[in-house]
Here is the input.
Amino acid sequence: MAARVFGVDFSHGMLKMAREKTKSFANVRLVEADAGSLPFATGSFDAVTCSHAFYELKGETQDQALQEIVRVLRPKGTFLMMEHDVPANPLVRILFHFRLAFMGAERAVIFLRNEREVLERCFRSVEKVVVPAG
Here is the structure.
């Protein structure tokens, strides 16, 4: 059986772009939904990924999204998150924090500083792998 892939985004415009890029893949379904309220049954997925989006979730949506990810994962399912790290370069770090402040994402900085503790509240095993940019 071929894998089924679901892409979720709250942005109609982003989904429109994704539909264009994935139209040749019959096993890809795109769903307009909020990460804090996923429209999938409990235990539906072997794996869930989140790429460069978690830090943009505002307010309680971060906590709700993690709870939803845990809910839709099957037992022993895997959650993979790719996210920005706080830049080491002082100038880039200032710009990074400015961007987050401009977005109104104060919780993002808290998450980035405490990601292991936040994730360990939801998952039995947490491993951080740092990869070079580019």
